[in-house]
Design brief:
Elements: H1 3-10, E1 26-30, H2 34-39, H3 48-66, E2 70-77, H4 85-101, H5 103-109, E3 112-116, H6 124-137, E4 144-151, H7 153-170, H8 180-184, E5 197-200, E6 219-222, H9 232-244
Parallel strand pairs: 1-2, 1-5, 2-4, 3-4, 5-6
Helix pairs in contact: 3-4, 4-6
Bound molecules: farnesyl diphosphate.
Farnesyl diphosphate (FPP) is lined by residues 31-36, 49, 52-53, 56, 75, 80, 91, 94-95, 98, 147, 202.
Family: Belongs to the UPP synthase family.
Pfam families: Prenyltransf
Subunit structure: Homodimer.
Length: 256
């Protein structure tokens, strides 16, 4: 057994310095740095993506093992269509494989899986696998895993505006009755809620059009680790940092 496997095994349960009562309920992750990970090893950029899937597979297991209720990951943005076609094909194929190969694991762990984004524009075989995976896991009662695919935060907000505008036009909604709760019912994250913690790898300090509405009060954790190198030890650090934060949601503490 390698040193890394020994460390990972010892982190099978929530590390003892973390408070299980103060874990983030929902974690969102921008999985950045696959290309650089491959380049640093003298490999073509796209070789980083399969290793990115390995890191994602372990993160899903880790979140489930440690009691996280919802995990949302950014797999493909509406802007990623500008990448070389070969790379787009590889990512689409990897998402499809992941949704198919992990089905047994999702069943064992009772993980409910959904994709969010403009799914109608995805390749036909991925759309079919998406539907199968969502159908097969729909009744699962455990962690919610959401894979943002062809997702854009601005597009999501516009779509919610269009839905509300249509109701106003039909005379079923007064503009003054539009509030945060009614707006949120038209977002993809309805039922999952806002992330408490947003993790971004590879050191970039950007939101990159991810969950623009929902991250209003999320704690942000940025690590220099490239996504394929993100492991349970790094997740431990992210959660430890989260538990040190003072979440005030715009308020002041009574003592201040
Ligand atoms: C960012 O790295 C990563 C992506 C755009 C794709 C993320 C995809 C995966 C982890 C694999 C497939 C996903 C699933 C859900 C199975 P980058 O290529 O932008 O890296 P760079 O910034 O170093 O170039």
């Amino acid at each position: 057994m390698t040193a890394k496997q020994i460390v990972d095994r010892s982190l099978k349960t929530l590390p003892s310095d973390l408070d299980p009562q103060r874990l983030p309920r929902h974690i969102a992750v921008i999985m950045d740095g696959n290309g650089r990970w491959a380049r640093r090893r003298g490999l073509p950029r796209i070789m980083g993506h399969p290793r990115g899937v390995d890191a994602l597979r372990d993160l899903v297991r880790c979140c489930d093992d440690w009691g996280i209720k919802a995990l949302t990951v950014y797999a493909f943005s509406t802007e990623n269509w500008n990448r070389p076609q070969k790379e787009i094909n590889v990512i689409m194929m990897l998402i499809e494989q992941f949704l198919r190969w992990e089905l047994r694991e999702f069943a064992q762990r009772q993980i409910r899986v959904e994709l969010m984004g403009q799914l109608q524009d995805l390749p036909e075989s991925l759309k079919q696998q998406t539907q199968r995976t969502m159908d097969k896991t729909a009744e699962n009662q455990g962690m919610r895993l959401t894979v943002a695919t062809n997702y854009g935060g601005r597009q999501e907000i516009l779509q919610a505006c269009q839905a509300l505008a249509a109701q106003v036009q039909q005379g079923t909604l007064n503009p003054e009755d539009i509030d945060q709760a009614s707006f949120e019912r038209h977002l993809y994250t309805v039922g999952i809620g806002d992330p408490d913690l947003l993790i971004r790898t590879s050191g970039e300090m950007r939101i990159s059009n991810f969950l623009l509405w929902q991250v209003a009060y999320s704690e942000i954790y940025i690590t220099d680790k490239l996504w394929p190198d993100f492991d349970r030890a790094e997740m431990h650090r992210a959660l430890w940092a989260f538990q040190k934060r003072d979440r005030r949601f715009g308020k002041v503490k009574p003592s201040r």
